[in-house]
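Go through the following before class.
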Amino acid sequence: MPFRAPFTNSTFSLDISSLAGFLGADAALAVMMLPHLHAQRKWWGWYNCPGSYYLAKRYGQLARFNFWSPLYRPSAVPRELAVELGGVMRPTFTSSQSGAILQRTGPLAPMLVDECGLTDAIVVIGRLSEEMDVTIVHLEREPSELEHPRVPHTHYRCMALFPMAATLSAAIVSAYYRDRYSASVILLGALCHGIACVVMGDAKFIYQHRIPHQAACLASGWLEAPKAFIVLCGTEAAVAPVTRGRFSLEFENSKAHCAVTACSILLGLQFLLQLILVPAGTLFGQVMFIASLLASWAYHRLILADDKESVQRGILMTDILGGPQLQKYRFGTRTAAAVFAILALRPAIGPDIKARLRAVLPSDTPVWQLWDDIVARRILSGQSLHFTEERSWEWQKMRGLSTLDESLLFVTLLQDAEDAYVAFQQYPPRTVCSLTTTRLGRVHDAISEGRQ
């Protein structure tokens, strides 16, 4: 004879069935692709998971399921599914050689920006107005357009026993107190989430990028992120992972897409059954249902969700980019940071120093134009950026400056450029970007060799 269930005489009902399909969806979506980022984790998803509605919708979008995405054609069943960082601000990229600007880089660029943000910086002494970092990244590895990165092993697999045990305990206790509705919904949630993890875990985690034949050469250049310049030194193929690369999931055949679609339907049915069965359960059963969701939410939020980006970032830096060297400098002004970046890119820029300087520091006032001319001329000719004559008022008046405020600003900008030059001499980058050939030049060389 079972004991009397708690809250038996209570007429209060939580009625959280409608919220269960939505709450915790952000954490659940964040770890949905983790079976590919943690080896063998696909077998550790047998627990009740919140956010079934959004999981069903996302699975349907991945499989091009028409119910969720009516814009997709029924016959459009791609072999690859994108795994992108939705909602993440992507930095712009400017090529040092051609001056081409890529307004929207690939989804892997924010990962490199985050990695640079974690790197220790050399603090450069100088004027302080707004701190700006310059990170020089030397890229040597040229990945192919399609690769299968290794999946790292982590110690988080056994931690999945916590939500699994919580789910099983909640179901057993609910059944013991004869709340079959709550016990069934809890077990159904564990079954649906486990099947979804197994199906999605069968896909292969791949890296890919495509370089359009008619696109401008995007070799060495710089990424511009909030309060940071990331200077990329390398060939177009070496820089392509940052500018055009992405992680995707690859299925062997169309049957796998059908399985993903079935998971979408199954998760949708789970959400509907929650709406129907949870209100029919007892208050104690509803509390057990919430407890199982809280356990899985805590597992997602505290253990897995924050680790997804670090695992992907580790794959990018180690397997795709080949462990590039990072050198980070911290300047007190954007002007000094920009001059330092141009000095590092000097061999790759060629004669267009002034154009690149204006691209990174856009301004059309007479003071800035005069400063651009002087700094660009000296960098192009290889002269030092120590200014003496240019600081005199007579020299400045002959070049068009008419007020003391303009003179003060001009001298301040000269000092910023001088600070950047001193830092470049005192802390020289281990590798300075060199001039790389364009894709057209490589094709021309290949044709010439073929004719010979």
Observations:
- The CA atoms of residues 31 and 307 lie 9 Å apart.
